[in-house]
Every structure is written in C-alpha cells, then in structure tokens.
UniProtKB/TrEMBL annotation, chain A:
Cellular localisation: Cytoplasm
Family: Belongs to the PhoU family.
Domain PhoU: 19-105, 121-205
Domain of life assignment: Bacteria
Major location category of this protein: cytoplasm
Keyword terms, alphabetized: Cytoplasm, Phosphate transport, Transport
Cytoplasm in keyword set: yes
Designated name of the protein: Phosphate-specific transport system accessory protein PhoU
GO cellular component, one term: cytoplasm
InterPro entries: PhoU, PhoU-like_sf, PhoU_dom
Oligomeric form and interacting partners: Homodimer.
Pfam families: PhoU
From TrEMBL, chain B:
Name of the featured protein: Phosphate import ATP-binding protein PstB
Species annotation: Robertmurraya siralis
This protein's UniProt keywords: ATP-binding, Cell membrane, Membrane, Nucleotide-binding, Phosphate transport, Translocase, Transport
GO biological process, one term: phosphate ion transmembrane transport
Record-linked NCBIfam families: 3a0107s01c2 (TIGR00972)
Amino acid sequence: MVVRENFENSLQELQTKMTEMGELAISSLEKAFTAFKTQDIELALRVIEEDNEIDDLEEEINQFAIWLTVKEQPVARDLRKIIGAIKISSEIERIADFGVNIAKSAIKIGSEHSLISLTQLESMKDACINMLQKALQSFIDENIVLAKEVGDMDDVVDEYSNETYKQLTTYLSEHPEETNQLVQLLFINRYLERTADHITNIAESAAYLIKGRRYDLN
Amino acid sequence: MNTTFVERKQITEEITADNTQLSKQTKISVKDLNLFYGDKQALYDVSINIKEKEVTALIGPSGCGKSTFLRTLNRMNDLIDSVKINGEIIIDGDDIYRSNDVIKLRTKVGMVFQKPNLFPMSIYDNVAYGPRMQGIKNKSKLNKIVEESLRGAAIWDEVKDRLKSSALGLSGGQQQRVCIARAIAMKPDIILMDEPTSALDPISTLKVEELITTMKNDYTIVIVTHNMQQAARVSDRTAFFLSGEIIEFDETSKIFSMPNDQRTEDYVTGRFG
C-alpha cells in the first residue's frame, strides 16, 4: 500500500487545476494579442468575458489548498507545494488580467491604422507565453533548470520593452496626431513587461519548492 | 557602508539571537553510544549534543530506538538484565555510566511516562513523595515544594482545594500534569518525557504542550513523540531516529521545512512509518 495515496492524488489534482489555469491564461494572452493585432473587437470582448473563469479557478485552487492544509497538515516539500499553488494561482490570475488589459487597449485603438510594426510587442508576447509554459513546467516537474531559463528570458523581455519604449516615444514626438494609439501601445508594452515579471515570480516559487530557499530571478 | 536605522536594528537583533544560541551550553553529550538487548543491537553509534534549557524532540517510527535512547539518559535500562551499553553519556561533565550513584542521577534527570502513573494516594502525597524520600520532613517546607511544583506544572489552580483527595480521581490530563509536578518536586535539571500526551485528549494534550513550552525556561527537556505536529510545536531541535541510528539532528524548523536527508523527508511527510 502506498502511504498517503489519497494525499498524493489530491496534490496531483491541485497540479492539474494549476495547469488548467495556466492554459487559460495563455489562451487569454494569445487571444488578446490576436484581437489587438487583427483589430478584432469581438474577440477582445470575449477575452474580457472569459476572465471570470480564471478568477473562479483561482478561488477554487485556494479553497482546495486551504482544505488540504487543514486536513493533511503538510510539512516540508508537501507544504512548499501547497504554498506554491496558492502563490502561483494568484500570479496567473494577475497575468490573465494583463490579457484583459491588452484586450481593452485593443478596443480603445479600434480600427486606427495599426502601428504594431514599430514595436517588439509580438516578440514580447511570444516570449511571455514560452516563459509561462516553462515556469509552470518547472514547478510541476521540479526542474530548476527551467526556472533559471525563465529568469534569463525575463531579461530579454526587459530589453525588448526598453527598445519598444524608445521607438514609441521617438515616434510620438514626430507624430503627435497618433497619441491615442501610441499611448495604448506604451501601455501594452508595460503590460507585457509586467506579465514577464509575474511569470518570473512563478519560477521563483518553483525554485523555492525545489531548493527550499528563496531565489531572486527578477 | 551606510545602513538605515531599521537595518541596524535588524543586524543587532540577529547578532543578539546568535549570541543566545552560542551561550546555550551542551547539557547532555552522547558519544558513540551502542546498546544491545542480548544479541540484538538496538542503538548504533548514537552521538548527539543536547543543549540546556531547550526542548529536544526524538521522532521516528516504532522500534527505531528513540524510547530506548531516552531511557539511557537516566539509566532506566539498568533494570533490564540483558542490556549491554557502550559509549559515553556525559551530563554536566560526568559520564553517567561510570558513576554508581543512580539515585543522584535520577534526581537530576526526572521522567514522565506515556500513561499517568500516580500512586494511589492524595495529590499532595504524590508530589511530596520524592522530597520526603530525600528526608524533607518540615511541613511548611513540603507545603512550599508541593505548591511550587503544582504551579510549575500549571495545575495548582485546578487542584489547590482538593490536595488531600485521591490523585486517581483527576482526569487523565490533570493526572499527567501532576506527574510532571511530581517530577519537578525533585528539582531536576533535565526532564525526560516518553510520549507524555499519547493517552490524553486533544485539549489536555495542548495544555501539556503549553506547559512544556514554558518549562524550558528552567529545564532541559527531551521528549519522545509520535505526534510530529507536537514535535514541530514544542521543540527547538529534533532528532530523527531510524533502525537504531540518528539519521538527522537539526533545528526543528529545518527538519520540518527542508530536511537534508530523503529518509527524514519521507518520514515527516508521512510517506513511510
């Protein structure tokens, strides 16, 4: 008989819920960005609507983690896993909110002639999605190498962000008539840069689970 | 280096905490202790330094040797004929197995057992039993010892009006605290506790745990427990025993959050045992 089989199954279930939440957040970012890129207002509205599902899942994960703590009195690695689930689900929720913010910016830009080609925003979005997949995988597989890779990728996103900021502000001084869209692009730049920071926090939680001490990957 | 007031305060606190740790002396020093029941070896090269005025918890699965080890500390195993012991146990500089004064040793090292084992006599007489055996006859002196001991065991307020009643009329939790009072009455330095709450209900258990936490200001306590949450709650350091060996001995917070040895991790997380 495997000792604590039920507990093992519950921890597995917790991870399944986290993976599901991560997939929803990735989908939210992808759709929001597509809505922004293709100027699809309908899709942007759908992203905003679907965010509720992610919020509900965060609540569900928290309740489940609290109940597991009460019921199983976890210590050591088990405890770090449960604390990780609580912290990570809150980070994912925040990341999905950035998806909503991008969707809202897409709505504000509307059908103006798109200036997306001036920016590195798409590369930033791609990097963020890759990072989020790696950060969650790092937590689930307890793979410290992946957590460190996420930290390195955050530096790349920061560079893209600085570059985009410079390009947009330079363009703004020459084309003040485009202020509305440029401000939204600067916002999106900020949202993606912050998304990468929150993903890095997930990688830090993974590192804490694996090594039992705090790492500063940001 | 410029430091803010808050940083400086923090640094000072850290240094003070370190000094407190350093100033704690080793009360019991065990070196290469081996114990045999006849041909069967029960303890293998156990070495451990137990600090004064701390609570040290001994954990491990049944049959791992933790109670056997506890009993070596006041030579309770002497009562079993087939027991052979080698190695050394130094308490306050004396090797307890080289000295023949077991009475003196057991005065210094008190013990509380799994089940309350009060004598069928009054609460007062139970607590006064040890001091009387030591020759204390003076009534007011005995009264003082009994009151102090019962207060020390956080049971005085519950029994002060019924000191002459039979101790066996008390609840299990109260009886266990009177047992602790009886141990305290001998003014020991060290108190050994062998699963002191395993026969108690949850509330009585918490009362005894509270008591243990306050008692460490005055005594060095070594406690065997099967309840890992109890070890986490009451102890400063924890030793994990397995098959007669100490696998890991460290600060309790370390043992329960980030143990070094996989076997410790498996045990504290309930994966075996």
